Amino acid sequence: MDRERFEKQLNFILEIDKEKQILRQTHIRGYSRQEDDAEHAWHMAVMAFLLQEYSNEKIDIGRTMLMLLIHDLVEIDAGDTYAYDAEANKTKDEREHKAAERIYGLLPEDQGKMLMDLWLEFEAYETPEARFAHVMDNFQPLLLNHENDGKNWTSHNVRISQPLKRNEKTATGSEEIWSYMEEILEQSIRDGKIIDDREEKQE
């Protein structure tokens, strides 16, 4: 055993335990509490495995699942940035890149580079794996918000223009899942959970 390598790996393993402390805006099913980043990552990885048949393109599912498991580790340093917080999103990229360099840099060089490259691949949104991973990243909170009677949407006065903007590329990863997501959004508008501001945007 290369003891120095092993200790770097253990240091990283212990460091990422902090992901369990990063609370998201989304609540777990039943709305009893907020979910944490580690729960979000686990949920998406399982979803990706089960729903991979709906990807527009064939994907390497192992690569996609690992991408989903590691892409939010940067929030250990950068914190969770609410999708519809325009001000916080201005500094999100800078904060997360700095965090990625520190956190993945804890690993032995070869493993650190591999995870950093995977994180950058997710951020670039250009490969079939990254596109499908983004579908999961957008679908999972939407599914939970809908299941929780839209409480996260109503508490933030979410307007339909916001999820539509966030999901403008989702169909490039899965047209079928995006179609289902559109059904949820339209139902949520009818139920008064999301504000319909589409006519305002056209004026």
Low-confidence stretches: none
Q: Indicate the proportion of strand residues.
A: under 5%
Largest sheet: 2 strands, antiparallel
Helix content bin: 55-70%
Order of helices and strands: HEEHHHHHHHHHHH
Question: Distance between the terminal alpha carbons, to the nearest Å?
Answer: 67 Å
Number of strands: 2
Number of helices: 12
Strand order of the largest sheet: 1-2
Structure summarized in a few sentences:
It is built from twelve helices and two strands, in the order αββααααααααααα. It has helices at 3-15, 37-51, 61-70, 75-78, 86-89, 92-104, 109-124, 128-147, 151-155, 161-166, 175-190, 198-202, and strands spanning 23-27, 34-36. The termini are far apart.
Structure write-up:
With 203 residues, the chain is mainly alpha-helical. It is 63% helix and 4% strand. It is built from twelve helices and two strands; from the N terminus they run αββααααααααααα. The chain has a two-stranded antiparallel ribbon. A hairpin with a 6-residue loop joins β1 and β2 (34-36). α2 packs across α8. The radius of gyration is 18 Å and the shape is globular. The mean pLDDT is 94.
